[in-house]
User: Fold this.
Amino acid sequence: MHELLLFASVPAHQHHELLQQLAGLTAMQPRHRLERRLVFKAYRKPGLTTTRVGASQDLQGVELQRLNKMLNGGMFYTQVVGPVANADFGGNPSSSGDPDVSMSGLEEKPSSSSSSYSYEDQPWKLEFRDIPEAGTRSAVTARLMASATLPKGDITAPMNAWGYSFVTEYVVEGDVFVLNDIVIFLHRVLLYPTGTQESHGPRRQLPAYQELSPLERTGSYVLQAAITVQDGGNQEMMRTASQHLFGLREQLKSAVRLEMADRLSLDTRAK
Amino acid sequence: MADSFSLPLRPLTEKPDRPDTLPIEIAQINARWGSFRDVNEETLLAKIEEDKNRDPWEEEDEDDKPAEDVDSTERLETLYKRRAEILQFAMQAHMEALFALDFVSLLLSKHTPRQAETSMSTFLKQVAPLGSLNAEIVEPPPKSEAAVQDVKTVSRGWRAQNFNAAANKLLNSATRLEEEVASETKYWDEVLAVKEKGWKVCRLPRERTALGVQYGFLEATPIFRDRGLAALRRADNGSLILDKGLAPQKTRTVRVRVKNRDQITGCSKMPDPIPDAASVERRILQARDTVYEEELFHELMREARIMGSHGVTTRQNLVRVPISEEQEILLDLVDADREMPDEDKIESTEHDILANGLSHSIRILLAYAHRQNLRRRTQPPPPLSQKRRHTPEYQLLRPVMAYLQHSSHVRWLESFMNDIYRVLRAAGVERDFHAVPFASVSLPKVQAVPKVESLVQQFLMPFESTFSGHLITPQSSFRVKIRTNPVSPPFGTHYDISIDLPHHPEVQPPGRIGLQNEAAAALMHFVKLDIVSAIALQGSKTAKNTTKKEGVEGDRQLTWEAAYPHHGELLALSNAGRSKKLKISLSREELKVETFPLRGLEGFGRSGATKAPSLQSQTWTSDQAASKPGLMEFVAEVSREQS
Assistant:
């Protein structure tokens, strides 16, 4: 699957107004979305040899080649995304969450916790994003993407088994609108309070929501308009999708300036 | 205040100091008519007459008239001559213009030689040096007092006239503006009134200068969604006109009629046609209703087309839905104020309630479909691909049809069971059954979706009703489930019968019965089977009792054995060799038990000749008046009988 994107920066003071405008444009109420995002980095396991170097005559589909490359070739950062609710924040951090337990579901639920958040029941989704395609003539960011549902609960063990190590995590807060095929996500990144940094794994308890601080100090938001295309090789579909995005850009012209992102700033390759 | 102060725009019209003096008038007459001696009444009248008769273009035509008489060569000649004349005149005019140009150029060449030189002819340049002509203002000789006075008067007259004209224009525009302002105010007041009622007022997308009001449904099919917008135009007097463009102004509505045995016995209520002088609000409402109704009918048609397998037929403007053998529902889109033709005459109002109920249901279902559309629209869309997303047909007719079908089946089964049990009761068997119609419809307590939606959802799921009851022998029971599935195959209504017959554990009903007759036959068969086992059981019990009691030999009871239970036949073998056969037949109307004497087992073969004398039978009907001995008493009676 491919993803076509346009971005815009929205200052904090314009946020409310833009929400109203988007609600009017899409004729729907915003759907609030809160997500934990864990960043994992691929590493090469010792003993794992890269297969087939240089065997370029193989008649393989582009997608398959890409997949192979993704698995064996370059190393990428990937994100594991888990939806959370507002009520999940502010758990009692003193509860006994043993970070060394690797299997999910075997752990006892911390009964002393005041929050309803249960790390063991947290659903996860793996989101892989390639570096945006270079040299595209059209003025949108296009990149290969794939998503997959992951098992619930502690995700570090399976991810480790697949050759990914946990790097860091953050929270994304925002509102989603849908306009025909376009998903508009007005969001910002929130960081966990420093100090209680657990470097070795994802948190089992979430701090109070107020303690999260926006990554961007001014509190500004990012407006992201995205279309996913099933078959990235289909030029016509890709063109239609870009046309839709440009249409949205025209419609929002007086409010925000949607433009393509800097390719290298969306680089997900692990060096 | 400013408005109390009015400034006259017109100049004061002052009376002329004196009318024209007589000498002036005499001078005018002299100038026009010559000497007074020549002017008399006759000549004047003649002159007036002549003026009246004269055609304004006559003068020009006069020259042409004789030309028609001359022949063509002469005409050509005159034509050439005239042409030459015209050319000559034109040349002359050209020359004169050039002379004038030269003159002016020469005159100007004193002050702006460079510019003037460009417009001078070469001949002039050779002949006269540049700047050789000058002009000076010459002091004109002083005009006479009278002439000055004249000019003054004339200019004053001109000015007064102009002032007058200007004032008129200003006043006219003032009045026009005033009217305009009044009508604009009225228009905007009405627009505001519309807005305050909660309608969405916006600019028209096609016509950026006009206002529109949106009354359509956002979740409707695009063609109907886009039709839900009408321009708010201003009439000349400022009142608001709802301009729907080419869409018809009439109120249209979906009419539901119930046809029973080829007679229309019910019709849904029609909305009142709106009067001509209806308010804008009313008109908007009417437009909204009409667009809703049209969408409803469109969707009904769409759905009806995929329901051909259910017997639904469509015509240009009619959907026909069969409900049962004799009943069908007709749906059509009609103008609200249309007179009904004779063939549509409504025979009775028997099913008005049904028709009204149906018309409400399909509208509620369409509103529900709209909500579902909103839900679908606000979900993250699937990735873009070449497959176009098909919008499924809304469920409008299917739930309605399923409901009617289901309730008709339930009613039938209920009446059938009632009949059977009445027969049994008449035969002295007191048993009862329990019916739960629409057992599947239950309102959930907690729900993620809003209440209205969950309410409707219940009616989109398969309907299920259950019947359960005990049979005659203890422990035996039956249970019938009627299921009607409106959406997914298998369509239609099915009977699921499960029975528990301890005496015939091997008997199981067929899995899914679709026909009423088959279901009836199966149920009847089970009841008969149960009666047979009840009699057999009764016989064995009494037999035990009698043996315990050491009963009298002569009064010995026969023991019935279920020989052919599926045929309802029992046999009793007595030691005396006089065997008997008991035959039970059950129908919806009656239960009949007959006994036949048998002579040994081989008696079947020749029973025809010999059995007649002691044949006994008893019949219980559902509507019998007199009380008869019960089934068990009768059986006891016949079994006791010995000869």
The helical segments of chain A are 12-26, 62-72, 156-161, 235-251.
